[in-house]
Design goal:
2 domains; 4-stranded antiparallel sheet; 266 residues; Methylamine Dehydrogenase, Chain H; mainly beta
């Protein structure tokens, strides 16, 4: 439909605006670009970062844009004008992931410095510095009500945090390969690129509702069901990237192959 050209370096991340009319891209050329999805035209070239831009995200109303960079900063932009609204400083290493809370009042950032930071989008102030991970943090996401935050790290853990206090509510171990995660729409479980995870009910205001019949998850070498090893993946069948939905696992490989593995629901 469109080939959008203009970046002069690697494109590291892309995201659609909530209404689908805009696309944002982040690049190794140190810029962020806003595109018109109908025409493919560049609407804004956002400049200010001094190193690679790793991640971008829109606020729920589409009025704000956030970007994260190897220059250790997070920037908030006005999507209508392209102006920088806030430059958030405090991380001591590259920032790898960012996410807005559903109401747009909070921003979470994940960094190679092993921390997650919560920011006030109106003032740019740091509200919480969440510590506990022992390796770089590569993904963050808010629950639908904004009360919980989840993070995934190279230390093999997924952590669930209270956004009001910054307290760790749960640490889920054995999940080193996760690079993307989000809450389900009802906020009752976590969806990742490696499968589904279910924090303990005590973390929620109410017990989990109707959950799928089992937990499927793909680590580097094993696919597990309810925490038990189910299928060993030989070295020539392991993926460089993956997607997992219900009982279907898709592995993308360095060789160019894409493998689909379907599991019985019984």
């Amino acid at each position: 439909m469109q080939t959008l050209e203009g970046h002069t370096g690697s494109v590291n991340a892309v995201a659609f605006s909530p209404d689908g009319k805009l696309l944002v891209s982040a690049s190794g050329d140190r810029t962020v670009r806003l595109w018109d999805t109908a025409t493919g035209a560049t609407l804004q070239t956002l400049e200010g970062h001094t190193d690679w831009v790793n991640a971008v995200a829109f606020s729920a109303d589409g009025k704000l844009l956030v970007s994260a960079s190897d220059d250790r900063t997070v920037r908030l932009w006005d999507t209508a004008t392209g102006a920088t609204l806030q430059m958030l400083e405090g991380h001591t290493s590259s920032v790898k992931a960012v996410a807005f809370s559903p109401d747009g009042k909070l921003l979470a950032s994940a960094s190679d410095d092993r921390t997650v930071r919560l920011w006030d989008t109106a003032t740019g102030a740091t509200l919480q510095t969440l510590e506990g991970h022992t390796d770089w943090v590569k993904a963050v996401a808010f629950s639908p009500d904004g009360k919980l935050l989840v993070s995934a790290s190279g230390d093999g853990t997924v952590r669930l945090w209270d956004t009001a206090t910054g307290a760790t509510l749960q640490t889920l171990e054995g999940h080193k390969s996760i690079s993307e995660l989000s809450f389900s729409r009802d906020g009752q479980y976590l969806e990742t690129d490696r499968g589904m995870l279910y924090p303990q009910p005590s973390s929620f205001d109410a017990p989990p509702k109707a959950l799928p019949p089992y937990t499927m998850f793909a680590n580097v070498d094993w696919v597990t069901r309810d925490g038990e090893n189910l299928l060993w993946l030989p070295s020539n069948s392991r993926g460089t990237c993956s997607a997992f939905r219900r009982n279907l696992l898709v592995l993308g490989q360095a060789s160019g192959r894409v493998i689909f593995i379907a599991f019985s629901s019984s």
